[in-house]
Amino acid sequence: MNILIVEDEVEIAQLIQQTLERESFSCRLANNGLEALEIFQQQQPDLIILDLMLPGLDGLEVCTRIRQKPSKKDPYILMLTAKGEEIDRVIGLSTGADDYLVKPFSPRELVARVRALLRRSLRQVEQQPTQVYRTSHFIVDLDRHTASRRLNSEQEEPLDLTTLEFNLLATFISYPGRVWSRTQLIDKLWGNDFYGDERVVDTHIRRLRKKIEPDSANPTFIKTIVGLGYKFEDG
Fold first, then answer.
1. CA-CA distance, 192 to 194, in Å (whole number)?
2. What are residue 51's DSSP bridge partners?
3. pLDDT digits (tens, 9 = 90+) for 163-203
4. Are 184 and 234 in contact (CB under 8 A)?
5. d(CA 75, CA 52)
6. How many CA atoms lie within 13 A of 73 on its CB side?
7. Which H, E and C letters describe 94-107, residue by residue?
8. Which of 59, 133, 184, 224 counts the highest number of beta carbons within 10 A?
């Protein structure tokens, strides 16, 4: 597993690198946002440890740009910050971060968070059965890991989804009409290894809606059930 560490404080960056390399992870360092984006395009890391306060482009902007860039991998992002206020965590998660770790932190906690994030992708691969789901407007092939939208009876449009967006759509489409709470979606997609704020689910659903809905502000397929969660409908 390849990890990109984006941290401008040299001592902290070296500590993180040494800690993770002792656990047999392959690490690369970047000390500013622009360098991080260049390495991301070249290396396609599995996970990015991203400091919030960086010279030039800050961590929030780097996170946003990474999530907007088409890439073969959709890396997990663990955001680091010296701030502990809830609003900072919410902002970080809303830009696409998967987890949030406040400085100072112990090496043991860092390793636990990293392993938990990386196990999510392994669990998703292991649990996907060979199956194709079809609805009026969508086709999701779990074996080929492809998804498409029907434009009419003869035309289909491939959907450019990240791994997590694909698994989220597959979960919805395999249980049409079922209402899912945030907690249930976390259990289904990430299991007991999830660390962080459950509102990260809202971020991923918002991103998925932008790719599959005719009007993401007024969703047709992924409906919000106030006070309960979300459900998928495609009659």
1. 6
2. 80
3. 888 889 998 988 878 888 888 888 887 766 666 677 788 88
4. no
5. 17
6. 17
7. HCCCCEEEECCCCH
8. 59
Tokens standing for residue 22: 């002792």
Whether the Cβ atoms of residue 148 and residue 158 lie closer than 8 Å to each other: yes
Residue 45: Cβ within 10 Å count: 23
- Residue 117 tokens read as 């994030």
**Residue range 61-90, pLDDT digits in tens:** 999 888 877 666 678 899 898 766 665 666
The single residue listed with the structure tokens 């990109």 is: 4
DSSP state at residue 193? G
- Whether the Cβ atoms of residue 219 and residue 165 lie closer than 8 Å to each other: no
- DSSP letter at 206 equals H
Give the closest residue to 234 by CA, choosing from 131, 146, 149: 149
> Do residues 147 and 158 touch, judged by C-beta distance below 8 A?
yes
Tokens linked to 11: 């001592």
- Which amino acid is present at 45? P
CA pair distance 87, 199, nearest whole angstrom: 12
Give me the residue label for tokens 């007991």: 192
Q: Are 102 and 82 in contact (CB under 8 A)?
A: yes
87 token code pair:
């609003």
pTM: 0.57
Extended beta strands in 94-235, E state: 99-102, 132-134, 138-141, 146-150, 156-158, 179-180, 222-225, 229-232
Report the C-alpha gap between 194 and 99 in whole angstroms.
9
